[in-house]
Protein: Microtubule-associated protein MAP65-1a
Amino acid sequence: LVWDEVGESDEDRDKVLFQLDQECLDVYKRKVDQALKSRDLLLQALDYSKMELARLASALGEKSIATSPEKTARTIKQQLAALAPTLEQLGKQKKERINKFADIMSRIEQIRGEIAGNLEIGQQVAIPQINEDDLTDEKLRDFQSQLQELEKKKRERLKKVLEHVSTVQDLCSVLKMEHFSIITEVHESLDDSVGKDHKSISNDTLSKLDRTIATLNEDKTLRLKKLQELATQLNDLWDLMDTPTEERSLFDHVTCNRTASAEEVTAPGALALDIINQAEVEVQRLDELKYSKMKEIAFKKQTTLEDIYASAHIVIDTAAAHDKIFALIESGSMEPTELIADMDSQILKAKEEALSRKEILDKVERWISACEEESWLEDYNRDDNRYNSGRGAHLNLKRAEKARIQVNKIPGLVETLVAKTTAWEENHGLSFTYDGVPLLAMLDEYVMLRQEKEEEKRKMREQKRYTEQLLNIDREGPFGTRVSPYRVASAKKVPSPKPNGSVANGSPGRRLSMSTQQNESKSSRSAGKKAAAVAAQPKTPASPNEAATVKEDDTPIQHTDADPVPCSP
Structure:
């Protein structure tokens, strides 16, 4: 209509229509191209979805998922729509699995870093690189197993660290040292204010703790050794000076560990430096005091030694021993402890010797006692008034009965003494002396005296019988009985024995005159006098005429400091 009104020519009209046909054809071509491109994109998306589905299924290890659901659909969009839920589900599962892997691997790296000491306290490790192509359950379990092993190792290390810290604290308590500075010097996280989860468990920390414990144990051992040496010195000095128990108890905290091992010493402050210094000061004080009391201690022990020898009836040169001790102390040629130890050794040796002599000495005492009773019995038998009913007569009678029993045992006792003394001398290679006099000589002398006495008694009995025969002849003359002018009455009555066994005005008999060194101790002199008193027995007169004419043997015995008192019974 426009062209008719305008009067457009057919040629121009054909040209315009041709252009319109071309333009419409171009529009169709563009739409077809767009449709082809859209179809290609959908096919690519479908292929990608299939590939993604296969990759996710492979990465997650899901073998039961169908990777070709398009076989049941007709169009591309339907195929994509069928794959979309599965892809979405696998995508979520992949993210969850990646998060699990990331958490486990981070914890693994964290523990490894703590063990290696590469991480500071509170520092977190970077997110590790995760292989998204391998997110299977098997791989996850493998990482979980590694994590469990590392966590177990961490717990063991943490326990070891805490034990080491506790050991350090205990050692510091025994040594009385500040443990805080020692612990924090190893690592600042070992302080009690830091929680267990944040304490260092690195190899370096454990190594430092081991070195610290070794150093403290060495220090503990050295201090204990020093304290034990001081305790031993204290004990020796106390024994040396006879320190009372009350004063010793002030240092019980020092001496209680004298024989303990390092592991047994656990009391707080037991090995503190101030305790060691206190013990050193006390040892120094006692050591200085020791020299001032050394003479007193030495002579006290010498007195003990002399008492032992005196009780064993052994003669020693006490004056020479005192001079020797005095010279050693004044010259300082021997340490006081060595001198006291030597005297203790002498005392021990003396005790052993006294113990070896005890059995013989007991029998010697019995022998001396029996000899005393024998002497008393002889005096008692010579008393004509012994059967009178005077005061104490019954007591003397009982004593006489007992004395006869003891006297009858003397020969057997002497034989036993000779045998035992001979055996003792053979075993010891020494002569057995009693207050400086050889015991065998005393026994031989006694046997000889006893034999002489028996011989005198026999002669006296014969003389008595002879005298009686003469008297009987005089009485029976041819013109009857008459009194003999030779009858002799006793000029003096024989003194009666006292109840205690002593005899007034008794005359001493023979005595031993053996020459030996006199014991300077009082006990030795008293023992010699006792034995001499036993030996002093009166002689029996040979005839009644001689009863009144018996005189004492008043020959004096000269005594010097080197001559012994006669001690033979």
Q: What stands out?
A: Residues 224-289 form one domain. Residues 480-569 have pLDDT under 50 and may be disordered.
